[in-house]
Structures are given as structure tokens and as C-alpha cells.
Amino acid sequence: MDVVGLVSGGKDSCYNMMCAVDAGHRIVALANLYPGDRGELDSYMYQSVGAEGVSMIAQAMGLPLYRREISGSSINQDYDYSPTMGDEVEDLYELLSHIKKQHPTIEGVSVGAISSSYQKLRVENVCRRLNLVPLCYLWERDQTELLREMLTRGLDAILIKVAAVGLDRTCIGRRLSEVESMLNQLHFQYGVHPCGEGGEYETFVIDCPLFQKSIEILESKVL
Predict the structure, then answer these.
(1) Using one digit for the tens of pLDDT, what is the confidence trace for 6-30?
(2) Which CATH number is 157-207's, of 3.40.50.300, 3.30.40.230, 3.90.1490.10, 3.30.160.250?
(3) SS3 labels along the chain
(4) What is the architecture, at CATH level 2, of domain 2-135?
(5) b/e burial code for range 124-146 (CB count within 10 A of at least 16 → b)
(6) Where are the domains of the chain?
(7) pLDDT digits (tens, 9 = 90+) for 176-200
(8) Of the residues 21, 100, 146, 192, which has the maximum number of CB atoms within 10 A of its CB?
(9) Is the pTM of this model over 0.90?
């Protein structure tokens, strides 16, 4: 079926799209929610770090990108979400509703959730309301095995944020493949999530098998 990929720029959203293609689906458009002038958001739902680079991923994949600025916040934090005016989840609903009108053949949504029930349940709520099928191929996978699989299958990503013991400024800009062994060691020593599900780090994908061309970072600065 035709699928829209929810993308943050990070490894999970890109690898889930790879899995969707493996399952016989077609990625026909990309969707991204970004923070606007507010900068990085403290959001339970969305990765906002690196959002400015998502357009390059769309270009690399040769797909249309639909974006919406996040205007809401985490108002309804109940386990079972119900539509709430002003909640950031409604920004996702409006974005996917618009995309569905532009691409009536879309039946599914690629979602890179691994372990956040909060995120997964809210995406599922939006999908039910729009009669779309959420595709969550990474859900509850063993993170050490999943990270290894991503790298083995040609996903190339760099670290763009770190926030965990053992990860410092020198890790920024390094390839995920270069820090894999370090992440596994930190997992056994301190319980760091190998895929960063606890917010330990964020990534930006510069190449993967879905790309028609790779992304080259010519200039960067660590803040």
C-alpha cells in the first residue's frame, strides 16, 4: 500500500521506512512536524533537533515533503489519549489529514517508535481517526540487535545531540557506527539505551538504501 513516512531526520524513522519497503509498501510522501521559532522543544512526541535538515532527506529520497509547525503542547498526558484542543497530537492529525487529501491513495503511516507507548498510542489514535494503518516495525525490538541491524543494512547517521553519562561533546558529529561499541558498553554499565530511547542521543541520517544520493555535511558547529 501507499505510505507516508513520519520523519524527524533521525535513524528510527528512516529505518522503519526501509522496513516498510521491505514489506512491499511504497513510500510516496514524507511528513514532518517542526518547532518553528521556539527552537528545540521539550516534547514527549517529537524529535525537534535536526528538523531543519529534513528537507535534505526528502531531496535525497526524491519525495514530496509536507511540514507543519508545532503549535500545541503536551496538554493531555493521559495514557489513553482522546482528541484535545491545543495538544501537540492535533498538529499531527492536521498534517496527516492534509497529506491524505493531497495523496488519496495513502493507506498507511510509517512510524519509527521503538519503546514509547505514549508516542505509539497517540499516533495510533490519529491513524484511527483518519482510517490509516500505523506501521511500527521497530516496536519493542531488542535495541542492541536493532542498532546492529541498522548499521549492517547501510544506514549511515551522525550524532547531533548527546545527553547521557559517557557521551560528551566529542561524540557530536561522529558516525553512529563509530560509537556503537561505546553505546553497548554504556548500556551494560549504566543502562543507557543503545538506540537512545531514553533521550541519551539524537541522530541525523546522511545516507541509507532509500536515498538516491547521500547528504554531505560541509560545515557544522557544536553548541
Answers:
(1) 999 999 999 999 999 999 999 999 9
(2) 3.90.1490.10
(3) CEEEEECCCCHHHHHHHHHHHHCCCEEEEEEEEECHHHCCCCCCCCCCCCHHHHHHHHHHHCCCEEEEECCCECCCCCCCCCCCCCEHHHHHHHHHHHHHHHCCCEEEEECCCCCCHHHHHHHHHHHHHHCCEEECCCCCCCHHHHHHHHHHCCCEEEEEEECECCECHHHCCCEHHHHHHHHHHHHHHHCCCCCCCCCCEEEEEEECCCCCCCCCCCCCCCC
(4) 3-Layer(aba) Sandwich (3.40)
(5) bbbbeeeebebbbbbbeeebbeb
(6) 2-135, 157-207
(7) 999 999 999 999 999 999 999 988 9
(8) 192
(9) yes
- Long-range (24+ apart) CB contacts under 8 A made by 50-53 are 50/8, 50/9, 50/10, 50/160, 50/161, 50/202, 50/203, 50/204, 51/8, 51/9, 53/9, 53/204, 53/215
Q: Distance between terminal CA atoms of the chain?
A: 42
Q: State the amino acid at position 182 in one-letter form.
A: M
